[in-house]
Amino acid sequence: MSQSRVALVTGGTGGIGTAICCRLASLGHRVATNYRNEEKALAWQAELKAKGFDITIVPGDVGSPESAAAMVRGVEEALGPVEILVNNAGITRDTTFHKMSAMQWQEVINTNLNSCYNATHPVIEGMRNRKWGRIIQISSINGQKGQYGQANYAASKAGMHGFTISLAQESAKFGITVNTISPGYVATDMVMAVPEEVRAKIAAQIPVGRLGTPDEIAYAVSFFLPDEAAWITGANLSINGGHYMGW
Ligand code: NDP
Question: Which residue numbers delimit the Ketoreductase domain (predicted)?
Fold first, then answer.
C-alpha cells in the first residue's frame, strides 16, 4: 500500500462521492467529507461504518468561502493536514438558457465552480509548504461538449478544467498535481432523476452500451494519487464509455 494520506472529498455523501470515499478508505487513506444536513450525514456515516469504512464528517457548504474554510479546519483538527482534495460536490438546475433565471445560473456556478476556490484556497498553502498534494476536480462530459438545457452546468464544469490547468502550472514545482476527471453519465440520483426513456436514449449513444458506475469514477480518482502518478498534472481524464472522445 502507498502512504496513508488525509483526504477530503467534498459532496462525499452523494452517489459518486460515496464511492470515492470508500475507495480511498479501502486504500488506507484517512477520509473526510462535508455535510449540510447532520441527521442525514450521521445515518450515511453509520451505514458505511457497518460496511467497514470509517469516514469523518464535518459541517460545510462549499458554496460559501467561510463555511468551506471552517470545513477544512474541521478536517485538519480531526485528521491532520489535508493532502488529497477531491472537489466533487455539484448540482444541476437545468433549463434552456432563455428561460434560465439569474438564480439558476448563480447557484450552479457557485456550487460547482466557486467551490473550487472555496475548498482549495484553505489547503493550498499547506500543500506547498509540505511539497506534496493531490487536487482533483470532478467535472463532466457536458463541460467538454455542452448540453441542451445546461448552459449554467456546462459553463461551471468547463471552468473547473480552466482552474485545473492554471493551478497545475502554479503548483507543479511544489510536488502538487492538479487534474480533472470528466465523467460521462453515471447511474446516481442525479441521473436516475432523468426520465427512463431519456436515459435509454443516452445509453444508446454510449459505445460501451451502458451508464457508468460510481466505482468506475472512484477508480480514476485513485489512479492520480500514488507517487507513480507524480508526472500526471493538468490532465483531463474522460471516463464516459466512449460517449465523447475529445479533449
Ligand atoms: P449527487 O447529487 O448524488 O451528490 C452531490 C453531493 O454534493 C451531495 O453529497 C451533496 O450534498 C453535495 N453538495 C451539493 N451542494 C453542496 C454544497 N453547496 N456544499 C456542500 N456539499 C454540496 O451527485 P453525483 O454523485 O451524481 O455527482 C457528483 C459530482 O459528479 C458532481 O459534481 C456532478 O456534477 C459530477 N458528475 C456527475 C455525473 C453523473 O452522471 N452522476 C456525470 C458527470 C459529472 P447534500 O446531500 O447536502 O445536497
Answer: 5-184
Instruction: Give the pLDDT score at 195.
Output: 86
pLDDT at position 1: 52
The predicted model gives 101-130 an average pLDDT of 98
| Domain-located, residue 108 | yes
Residue 86 lies in a domain: yes
CATH number of the domain within which 23 lies: 3.40.50.720
Q: Are 28 and 1 in contact (CB under 8 A)?
A: yes
Whether the model pTM is above 0.95: yes
CA–CA separation, 182 and 59 (whole Å): 27
The domain total for the chain is 1
71 inside domain: yes
Compute the average pLDDT of residues 117-144.
98
Domain membership of residue 59 as a residue range: 6-234
Ligand 1 atom nearest to CA at 37: 47
Atom of ligand 1 nearest to the CA of 62: 19
Q: Are 192 and 213 in contact (CB under 8 A)?
A: no
Q: Is residue 58 part of a domain?
A: yes
The identity of residue 241, as a single letter, is: G
Which ipTM was obtained for this model?
A: 0.99
Residue to probe by mutation, ligand 1, list 23, 42, 188, 206, most atoms within 8 Å of CB: 188
Q: How far is CA 74 from the centre of its chain?
A: 19
